[in-house]
Amino acid sequence: MLYLPQTETCPGRLVINEAEAEVVRQMFRWLVDEQLSTYHVTQRLNEAGIRTRQGNPRWAGGYVTNLLRNPVYTGTYYYNRRKQAKAQRRNLPGAGPAKKPQSSRVWRAKEEWIAVPVPAIIEQETWEMARHQLQLNRERAPRNNKVHDYLLKGLAVCGYCQLRMVGHAGTARRRRYLCSRKESLHGSLQPCPGRTVLADTLEEVVWQSVSALLRDPPLLVEHYQLRQVQDPSTPEQHEQQRLHRKLIALQREEQRLIDAYQAGVIDLADLKVRCERIAEERMRMEARLAALKQQQEETERQVSLTATLEEFCQNIRAALATPSFATKQRILRLVVDQIVVADEQITIKHVIPLSDVRLQRQHYTAATPTTD
After folding, report:
1. I want to staple 114 with a disulfide (CB 3.0 to 4.6 A). Which of 79, 210, 290, 303 is the partner?
2. Other Cβ atoms within 10 Å of 304 Cβ, number
3. Is 121 in the same domain as 172?
4. Distance between CA atoms of 181 and 161, rounded to whole angstroms?
């Protein structure tokens, strides 16, 4: 995005630079659709010869990570995030006389930030999926396990504590999955009642269940339809139009408040109170619009779901014949969101492929018994 400074006739504002915006969208597609790590996203940018906004031919991993976490691309810019403060200087031995104190900018409390609407480059859903994928990438990073391979790394969750299960071989060298709470137990916490699970047993049950499901698209459709909650009330089209008009009016009202603050007509406290009221009302309307949109999309998805699943399963069927460990792990991470383990039962929450563009995250559960 580019910032256009305030002029006599127009307030300062952010506008979309389409060339840069397409690079940002591509980065989010690599992260969400292909589930690449920020390291590999950075590598692709450098290999493609894409320059940063400052014209640097090399991208840094930290810069890419911060970009993928920035909410401004979803249409929200936070104003008033920092303030001036006296810089603290440590007088180290032999550093000479103390220098003149300088000021620095420090972060304000998040409650003091002011949300300002700006043009959006990506959808809110895409950004949320990117945040989720970044978290998964951290949990699945190879640095967290350098000795044994665990097929369900980052996928298995304790059914009691809702915490990630980690791989552990112990002195017997038998790979197991156990609740991460068992390894980080503190005195005030109650021990996790869940049992450890043999890795070979759990991995075999999960792989057989998932691969069988991918070989049978009608069964996949049936499970998906069982998860749908039909809403008997169909929203009127005029309600969506009314909400859109109201959102436009709120955006104009918020811009007038910012202009008034910049002109010195109202103070910061008054601006904050009024903007918070507008933000709350906007959130309510956007939530309602999202619900209406989801109902409409759900109807459209039901029509094309069978064909899409058959195409997806056909494309992946060859890989199911004699897959390597890496292929199995890749497939599981594409189609499984969580594997909840609670004693004698596991629940696999799948990612239903609803588009030829990317895998949309819709869940259903399939219970399968297992033993320790």
Report:
1. 79
2. 12
3. no
4. 8
Phi, psi of 209 (to 5 degrees): -65, -45
Tens digit of pLDDT at every position of the chain (372 positions): 666 666 666 666 667 788 888 999 999 988 887 778 898 899 999 988 898 888 888 999 889 999 999 888 888 888 888 887 776 655 555 556 656 556 677 888 888 888 888 888 889 888 988 898 888 777 666 665 556 788 898 888 888 888 888 888 766 678 888 887 775 544 445 778 888 889 999 999 999 988 888 887 777 667 656 655 444 444 556 677 888 888 888 888 888 888 888 888 888 888 888 888 888 888 888 888 887 777 676 666 655 566 666 777 777 777 787 888 888 888 888 888 889 998 778 888 877 654 443 444 444 444 444 434
In a domain, 239, yes or no: no
Structural domain includes residue 65: yes
255, part of any domain = no
State the angle between helix axes of 124-140 and 61-69 in degrees (0 to 180), rounded to the nearest 10: 140
Taking the alpha carbons at both ends of the chain, their separation in whole angstroms is 54
Q: Are residues 205 and 136 in the same domain?
A: no
Is 273 part of any domain?
A: no
The sign of the dihedral angle between the CA atoms of 312, 313, 318, 324 is positive
**Domain around 7:** 1-82+104-144
Q: Kindly state the tokens that stand for 369.
A: 């018994």
Structure tokens of 263?
């002109």
Shared domain check, 48 and 139: yes
Backbone dihedral angles phi then psi of residue 13, each to the nearest 5 degrees: -160, 160
The reported pTM is 0.47
Residues 133 and 204 in one domain: no
Judged by DSSP in three states, 221 sits in helix
Residues 51 and 131 both lie in one domain: yes
